[in-house]
């Protein structure tokens, strides 16, 4: 499968470097380029990329809002979005994840890491380590879950074991660690993860962590 990549970066030199790096990969194709957030929306609508590499600081429309419009909760068949920024600031990471991003990298990361990051989220995985995601979401939990919000109907879709797997995902455990804690095989855990994501209409583990906090399944002061 060829991964079609849209590059959204306002610095021409940086954008050219990304184009060169992705074009050199046998399993990737540069589907388009954009130098600002509005252009990113227009190009994405025309070329329908699999993955969008999105700078946060874009003119006309910032990368977080562009991400929200491309991959937010209400978007049908959204592309995966990998956010790239020069700023390692929790607030930016949090806002990008809330907007629908599947991954986050710093702009000074090696190009090989960026290329592998695109492959990672194209496979449906999240690029941010679950433990890091938990820390970020926990820190901003008051924004995610309104006061008094409870579990409610969405959690009722899950079987007890699926709910337990979701709770452990939100605590930052890998599939192997979940398997060890629940005395299951890793393949069985993968099946549970896939099933719960489907039932809750979530795209990846990052969204699963956000969901767990939003519904009150876990809270920031646990563990």
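^ Assign residues to that structure.
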């Amino acid at each position: 499968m060829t991964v079609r990549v849209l590059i959204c970066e306002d610095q021409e030199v940086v954008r050219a470097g990304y184009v060169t790096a992705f074009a050199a990969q046998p399993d990737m194709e540069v589907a388009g380029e954009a130098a600002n957030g509005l252009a990113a929306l227009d190009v994405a609508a025309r070329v329908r990329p699999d993955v969008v590499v999105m700078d946060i600081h874009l003119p006309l429309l910032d990368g977080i809002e562009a991400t929200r419009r491309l991959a937010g909760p209400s978007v049908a068949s959204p592309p995966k979005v990998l956010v790239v920024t020069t700023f390692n600031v929790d607030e930016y990471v949090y806002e990008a994840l809330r907007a629908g991003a599947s991954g986050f990298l710093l702009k000074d990361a090696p190009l090989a890491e960026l290329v592998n990051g695109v492959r990672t989220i194209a496979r449906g995985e999240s690029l941010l380590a679950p433990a890091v995601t938990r820390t970020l979401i926990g820190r901003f939990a008051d924004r995610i879950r309104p006061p008094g919000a409870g579990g409610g109907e969405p959690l009722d879709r899950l079987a007890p074991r699926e709910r337990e797997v979701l709770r452990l995902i939100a605590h930052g455990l890998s599939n192997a660690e979940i398997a060890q804690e629940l005395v299951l095989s890793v393949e069985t855990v993968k099946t549970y993860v896939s099933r719960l994501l489907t039932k809750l209409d979530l795209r990846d583990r990052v969204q699963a962590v956000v969901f767990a906090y939003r519904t009150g399944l876990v809270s920031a002061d646990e563990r």
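The first strand starts at residue 3 and ends at 8.
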